[in-house]
Amino acid sequence: MSKAYGFIEITGVVAAINALDIMCKTADVELASWERKLGGRLVTLIIQGDVSAVNEAVEAAVAGAIKKPASYAVIARPHEEIVKLVELSASRWKKKTDETKKENK
């Protein structure tokens, strides 16, 4: 199976968590990264998995999320530049998580 990315942009952290929960329970996908913009009012979730699983997960979240997504897309077999962009986003997210863990010790 080919790798794919699914993107959902939705308003609010609670709505984003709800959409992520739907996606992860619907198909075999995992969170690749996420971004908050406008103080958390706009959240972009990026999931990854095989093409059919990502399609199924995104469709389920669009249909069942507590808010209508602002936008969404699935990219099958992403170009290497897209992969680099997602990995950069994920590295910033993981770096922030690691810094928070160190501060809490």
Descriptive overview:
Helix content is 50%, strand content 30%. The protein has helices at residues 13-26, 51-64, 80-103; strands at 3-11, 30-37, 42-50, 71-76. Strand 2 (30-37) and strand 3 (42-50) form a beta hairpin. Strands 2-3-1-4 form a four-stranded antiparallel β-sheet. Helix 1 (13-26) crosses helix 2. The protein starts with a strand and ends with a helix. The protein contains three helices and four strands, in the order E-H-E-E-H-E-H. The longest helix is centred in the C-terminal third of the chain and has 24 residues, at 80-103. By secondary structure, it is an alpha+beta fold.
- The helix content, as a percent range, equals 40-55%
Q: Proportion of β residues?
A: 25-35%
Q: What's the overall geometry?
A: globular
Determine the number of helices (DSSP H or I, runs of at least 4 residues): 3
Low-confidence stretches: none
Spatial separation of the terminal alpha carbons: 41 Å
Major sheet: size, sense and barrel closure?
A: 4 strands, antiparallel
- What structural class should be given to the helix and strand makeup? alpha+beta
Any idea what the radius of gyration is?
14 Å
Question: Which terms summarize this structure?
Answer:
alpha+beta, 30% strand, four-stranded antiparallel beta sheet, single chain, 105 residues, globular
